[in-house]
Amino acid sequence: MTPLSTPPLTRTRVTADPDWYAQDGISLGIRVGGLVFTSGQAPVDATGATVGRGDFEAQARRALANVATVLANGGSGLDQAVKVTVFVTDLSHQDVFAALRAEYYVPPFPAESFVQVAALADPDWMIEIEAVGAVA
Fold it and tell me: What are phi and psi for residue 29, nearest 5 degrees?
């Protein structure tokens, strides 16, 4: 029996200008085949500065905007998101995020995990979001 031969997958780095994670040696995202995988997107601006200290909704909006940028730059979008993982430092913000979900996503809504963590990479961050988006 001959083993099946599969062509090597091409991994393409997804970036932005400016790339707010480049100085940390992290790709904003990676495109493989018909999927775009984002790194965890924090509530940071294009220079990497934290946005909305102490304001969960402002931070969530910025993290979602960053996810949208990375997906778009990889050929996908929030409207093509298939899996989203949301990390928060306080589950009491779940209702705020639920309202944002209805604003930012389109049916059929992506599969999602909403997880409370003890801490994120920066103590001022209240949320971090990663996503997988399909490429049409």
Answer: -165, 170
